[in-house]
Write a structure and sequence with these properties.
The protein is of the alpha/beta class. The chain is 31% helix and 28% strand. It has a domain of 170 residues: 3-Layer(aba) Sandwich (Rossmann fold), CATH 3.40.50.300. Helix 4 packs across helix 5 and helix 5 runs parallel beside helix 6.
């Protein structure tokens, strides 16, 4: 952690309870941590650890039962539903395990989607930003292809480009390599590492130790609490792993 950098995320004593019939499930129990600008953090945890609940809170898809969440110094808990939607669209770039691309829409149009709700951009500006985002992830030659014409790795790169288009404060990745083979996973991890080197703040939610080893900091949850919060002193380099794998067509 670099405490000289601005705080992208601040979580203070977050709890999240769910009432299930006559029982109350305590999904998060007083979780606190900060993420500074430019960090690459993985949130680890097995099923039932609370990581999915935390993911929903970080993505402004849910509200805590108690505690405070600040995203880019904005207190999320005090926002209306419309304000939360605006925060999601402008400050968070989502990358999902299942890509969540529109099947009959080109890569370029998929990437443009977040800007469709932003009236400050003309159609030409949307197109230019989408082209730049696809170039950033190495898909200049695939802009007009639909998802069915792209490999899994290419589809995930389209999803990452879509996450980048609004220049978000935070890229939030949910099991982003979960549907990919080993080589493609390393390609996507290499891309995330490169984006982080360019200054992007990334939180990567995963249940796999092998994936977390490519991030600079690992927060481990268990039973709704932080079990460990460690700096990763031996960050794996995805590019080195790729060099040691047999080459194959993309």
């Amino acid at each position: 952690m670099d405490n000289n950098k601005n705080t992208a995320i601040k979580i203070e004593s977050i709890t999240r309870n769910f009432v299930m019939g006559s029982e109350t499930v305590h999904a998060l129990r007083g979780v606190s941590f900060d993420v500074h600008e430019g960090e690459f953090v993985s949130i680890m945890g097995s099923s039932g650890s609370g990581k999915s609940t935390l993911l929903n809170l970080l993505g402004c898809l849910d509200r805590p039962t108690a505690g405070h969440y600040f995203l880019d110094e904005v207190s999320v808990g005090e926002l209306s539903r419309n304000q939360l939607a605006e925060i999601r669209n402008h400050k968070i770039g989502f990358v999902f395990q299942s890509f969540n691309l529109l099947p009959r829409t080109s890569a370029l149009e998929n990437v443009e989607l977040p800007l469709m709700y932003n009236p400050s951009y003309s159609s030409r500006q949307r197109r230019q930003r989408a082209e730049a985002a696809l170039e950033q992830v190495g898909l200049t030659s695939r802009m007009k292809h639909t998802p069915s014409q792209l490999s899994g790795g290419q589809q995930q790169r389209v999803a990452i480009a879509r996450a980048l288009i609004n220049d978000p404060v935070l890229i939030l990745a949910d099991e982003a390599t979960g549907n990919l083979d080993s080589r493609t996973s390393f390609e996507i991890l290499s891309l995330f590492q490169r984006l982080n080197e360019q200054g992007k703040t990334i939180v990567f939610v995963t249940h796999e130790n092998d994936i977390a080893s490519f991030t600079k900091r690992i927060i481990t949850l268990k039973d709704g609490r932080i079990l460990k919060d460690n700096i990763n002193t031996k960050v794996e380099d995805a590019r080195e792993w790729l060099e040691n794998l047999p080459k194959q067509d993309d």
